[in-house]
Structure prediction request, 146 residues.
Amino acid sequence: MTKLLGMARNRRRLQKKFKNKSLTKQCFKDECDINRIVKSHLRGNIDDHVNSSKPHYGDFSNPVDYQSAMNLVIHANEQFDALSADVRKKFDNDPSKFLQFCSDENNVDEMVALGLAEKRELNVNKAPPEPQKQVDHVVESKNEQN
Prediction:
């Protein structure tokens, strides 16, 4: 027995020192803490890891059904396919890249150059037309009075 104790005293401690910064993200420490996980399960929150999305609130009174949405996507793809090959190649034959390009107001001049839009001139210096005056009463003609 004394021999075993002597061996334990002569044991050398080994340590590893890391020179680089740790890649462990401390922001996840609470999610990984076993004590918190057990407390959560005891409260009945068993599916926290499954349902991690937040609820979405909004006005969904005019929903689009799945078939209508798919028809809309098919129609958009058909319109993209109807463009010239050069235009489609510019967007890597990807309708989503084309849609993103067309949604940016800074690309209007390039869209006109590609023939995708018509140039509109703004009349900044012209005054807007004056509204017509409303007539509150009916004027009788001279022929009707006699």
Remarks:
- The CA atoms of residues 123 and 129 lie 12 Å apart.
- The chain is about 45% helix and 0% strand.
- Residues 84-123 form one domain.
